[in-house]
Structure formats: structure tokens, C-alpha cells
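[agent] plan:
  1. take the single chain provided in the ticket
  2. run structure prediction with default settings
  3. attach C-alpha cells to the ticket
  4. add a short note for the reviewer (M.T.)
[agent] executing step 1
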Amino acid sequence: MNDIWYKKIIGARTIKTGLATFLTAFFCLALDLNPIFAILTAIVTIEPTAKASLKKGYRRLPATIIGALFAVIFTFIFGDQSPFAYAFSATFTIILCTKLNLHVGTTVATLTAMAMIPGIHDAYFFNFFSRLLTAIIGLVTAGLVNFIILPPKYYDQLESSINTSERKMYALFDLRMRQLLLGKFTKSAPYRQLNALVDINQKVETLLAYQKDELSYHKHNDSDWLRLKSLTTRSHTNRLFITHLSNLVYLPKDTIVTFTHDEKLAILYIAQSINNIYTTGHFERQPRHASLLKTSVKGLDEFDENQIKSHIIYEILLIYRILDHRFAS
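[agent] step 2 finished; step 3 output follows
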């Protein structure tokens, strides 16, 4: 309970952003420095993982230096009341950051340059080095906060998203099989459901990458790596399932396939067995019905009028094999 109480209120990342902002402002004010630039840097440095914060912070610091340098240079040339100072500072900051592959720091660097210009006046060296110092304070403070305070754990989100994905993909497979057997396609619903599945799976892949980064930057028990490996395996299996399911959803328009009575029963039994996985927790295999479909597809010519039927049965058997392998004892 203590591990998740904050997630139901505002979230760990929000807490860390607030703490990093407070500490950054505190350090800057203690040094009699304007905290605004350091705070901007700290806020954007709080990333979903400590690794991302350190990696992007490594690029944001030189980008911020570039922005501050151009602000000083073009303010010296045009003065702080000239629109040219703003235009050239922004343009050259973006160009150089792009050339040096500092894309993640471009926005902060440009904002820093724009905010600096009105207050530079004649104190060019002081403003440049004070902005450099405040940027370092913001980056270091936010990086340490993100590394030490409330290290993110995405296991619960991963479990929830993977469970949702499996429930939806099993149900969609069952629905699509019944549509094929009845010869009645409702395109809109399966298409929307499939797109939702793809979105969920992409979210899972992102969370897996985040959690892997966290485990590589913090000391964890072997059980954490085993849990991550288990979730990764489930995610990869689901991705394969969704790939073959999409081939059954995106069929040519007005597809009509004629199945024998035994083939229909075999497909229905397999579809029902797959749909029951989410509620029962195991895969009730249908070896006799799978064998019937294998025998059936062997007798079809893939390049005559049975091409679509052959394709559909192949996809069903591939999905069956994926689940058979996953639930193998």
C-alpha cells in the first residue's frame, strides 16, 4: 500500500518535479542567482527514467550554453531593444543545436536565449556565466532527484496493460471468427478494436523500455529481472498474436469463404477456447480440431479460388501454435 499511495493522488513524477523545482530555486536564491532559468532546466530534465534524465541532461547543458552565448552575442551587436537580437538568437541557436545533434535541448536553449535578452544590458560576461551556473544547478538537482527519489516502477502498469491487451485480443479473435463463419463483416468495430490493441501494445513496449532502463541504473534483486523478463515475453507473444490477428481483420472487401460443417465446428471450438483464456487462466487445447484444419489446408490450392480460405486457416493455425507454445508446461 505504501508503494502506491502517491500514484492515486498526483503521481511520482509530479512529486519529483515539484521537489526538483523547490531545491533548484533554493540553491539559486542562496547564491543570489536568478532561479528562473535553472527551474526551466530542472522541469524539463525530469524524465520517466533516471537514464533518460541523465542522457538528455548531457545534451541539454551544451545546448543551453549555446543559447546563452548567442543571446549575449546578438544583444551586444543589436542591443536588447532590437527584434533582430531575438530573431538571430533563436535562429542561430536552433541551427547550431541541430547541427550538433542536440535536439532534446533545442527548446530549452531557445527559451533561455529569449528570456535572457531583456536583462543582459551591459553585463555580458556576468549574464553568460550566471546562466551557465544556473543551468548546471538545474540539471544536477533534477538528475539527482530523479535518480534517488521514488525510483519509478512500471510493473503494475505493465501488468494492467498486458492483461487488457490479452482480454481484448482474445475477444476480437472470437468475434472475427464468428463473422467469417456467418459471412457477415462489420468492419468498423473490428478495425477500431484492432487499432486500440496496437496502441496498448505500443504503450507496453514503451513501459518495458523504461523499466529496463531503471533496472540497469539501480540495484535490484534477481526477482525484478525475472519479472521483467516474464512481462517482456508476454508482450512479444501478444505482438505476434496481434500481427496474425490483423491479417484476419484486414481481409479484402466482400470476402466470402465457404467452410465445411466440420471446419466451422473446429474454428468455433478453437475460437471459444482462446476467448476463455482470460477468464480461466489457461489454454484448453483442441488438438483434434487443429489437426482437422491442418488436413483441410493441405488439400487446398493456395493459388485458386481457395486462396483466401487457405490464408485464413493458416493464420488460425499460427495463432493456435503461438498460444500452444506460450502455455506449454
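[agent] step 4 note for reviewer: The mean pLDDT is 86.
[agent] ticket updated
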